[in-house]
Amino acid sequence: MQKTSRDASGQDVSGQDLIALAQKLARDAEHHALLSASLASQADRLMLAGLERLQGRPHQTPPKSC
Fold first, then answer.
1. Is residue 33 part of a domain?
2. What torsion do the CA atoms of 47, 51, 53, 55 make, to the nearest 10 degrees?
3. Does residue 65 form part of some domain?
4. pLDDT tens-digit profile of 22-56?
5. How many domains does the chain have?
6. N or C: which end of the chain has fewer CB within 10 A?
7. Phi (first) and psi of residue 36, to 5 degrees
8. What does the alpha-carbon distance between residue 38 and residue 27 come to, in Å, rounded to a whole number?
9. DSSP labels, the chain
């Protein structure tokens, strides 16, 4: 006995459709993780620059990662 999955509109969804959706979600998650890491790195650089200005140090350009 095979269990049938349905989408939000009640339509039957095939196994291949579910796999394709899972692959798309995995790619989206990876893309968001990369963006999140990039934004975190940028936030770190901005935080350091702000702290240096508050302490009266000359601004030093830190090496960029990836």
1. yes
2. 180
3. no
4. 999 999 999 999 999 999 999 999 999 999 999 98
5. 1
6. N
7. -65, -45
8. 17
9. -PPPEE-TTS-EE-HHHHHHHHHHHHHHHHHHHHHHHHHHHHHHHHHHHHHHHHTTPPP--PPPP-
17 pLDDT tier (thresholds 50, 70, 90): very high
Q: Token pair for residue 8? A: 């939000």
* 47 domain-assigned: yes
E-strand stretches of the chain:
5-6, 12-13
| Lookup: tokens for 64 | 């960029």
Q: Which tokens hold the place of 38?
A: 């990039």
Burial class, 32, CB count within 10 angstroms (exposed 0-12 / middle 13-18 / buried 19+)? exposed
Does some domain include residue 24?
yes
